[in-house]
């Protein structure tokens, strides 16, 4: 994924009310940026840390700026939760995950039952559903998900299992937007219900792809699939 316009550099003053972040730009101007990440953002917040924000071309938008990334321990961590779906779609389109088939058809945001999955794909008669999650939480050398209780995420896992039982191929794609981790695991201490549902989903045949990406001020690109540690 390439950022369409140059990002704007600054430093974090504070994040508050979940969806707001005050940023000091390099010219000394303070702006308020929209924070798309509704989670706790544990392990990716640091006062006065370097950040990059983008500016919307929409002149009518209430907050013209969006917070894109923050530098933690010398590495950029992507915090914009609107990007992983596009990143995953590009990954599937480019056949980057070698164990998956080449898809003749891919579509975003497809309804199934009473849920909506992020990507639907077809390959030689096989029908696939993919759910995509953004991961920023770091615990030691391990990326974890979620960083807050997610009943919505629990439901997605349950619906993937249901789709699998009805003949679909299904997978979870976790987009890990930081490079200072070596493995991926569920956050048992934060959401034990989600963690248990993930184990059940794996046992039911749901494929799991924890994909680490490299975040830079110009692009976000996949690096490797991390080891899954349950």
Automatic annotation (TrEMBL):
Tell me the organism: Tenuifilum thalassicum
Protein's name in the database: Sugar fermentation stimulation protein homolog
Its lineage opens with:
Bacteria, Pseudomonadati, Bacteroidota, Bacteroidia, Bacteroidales
What one GO molecular function would you report for this record? DNA binding
The record's annotation in NCBIfam families points to: sfsA (TIGR00230)
Q: Which HAMAP family match?
A: SfsA
- Which Gene3D superfamilies does the UniProt entry name for this protein? 2.40.50.580, 3.40.1350.60
Coiled-coil regions, chain positions: none
Domain annotation Sugar fermentation stimulation protein C-terminal: ranges: 83-218
Superkingdom, taxonomy of origin:
Bacteria
Q: Which family does it belong to?
A: Belongs to the SfsA family.
SfsA N-terminal OB domain ranges (all copies): 13-79
């Amino acid at each position: 994924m390439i950022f369409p316009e140059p990002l704007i550099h600054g430093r974090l003053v504070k994040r508050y009310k979940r969806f707001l972040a005050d940023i000091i730009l390099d010219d000394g101007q303070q702006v308020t940026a929209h924070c798309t990440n509704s989670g706790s953002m544990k392990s990716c917040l640091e006062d006065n840390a370097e950040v990059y924000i983008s500016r919307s071309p929409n002149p009518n938008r209430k907050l013209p700026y969006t917070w894109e990334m923050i530098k933690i321990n010398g590495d950029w961590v992507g915090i914009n939760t609107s990007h992983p779906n596009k990143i995953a779609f590009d990954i599937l389109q480019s056949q980057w995950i070698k164990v998956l088939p080449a898809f003749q058809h891919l579509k975003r945001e497809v309804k199934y039952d009473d849920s909506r999955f992020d990507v639907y794909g077809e390959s030689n008669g096989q029908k696939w559903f993919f759910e995509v999650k953004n991961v920023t939480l770091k615990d030691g050398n391990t990326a974890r998900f979620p960083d807050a209780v997610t009943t919505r995420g629990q439901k997605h896992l349950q619906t993937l299992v249901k789709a699998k039982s009805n003949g679909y191929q299904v997978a979870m794609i976790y987009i890990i937007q930081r490079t200072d981790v070596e493995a991926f695991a569920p956050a048992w201490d934060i959401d034990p219900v989600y963690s248990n549902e993930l184990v059940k989903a794996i046992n039911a045949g749901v494929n799991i792809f924890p994909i680490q990406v490299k975040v830079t001020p110009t692009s976000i690109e996949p690096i490797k699939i991390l080891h899954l540690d349950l």
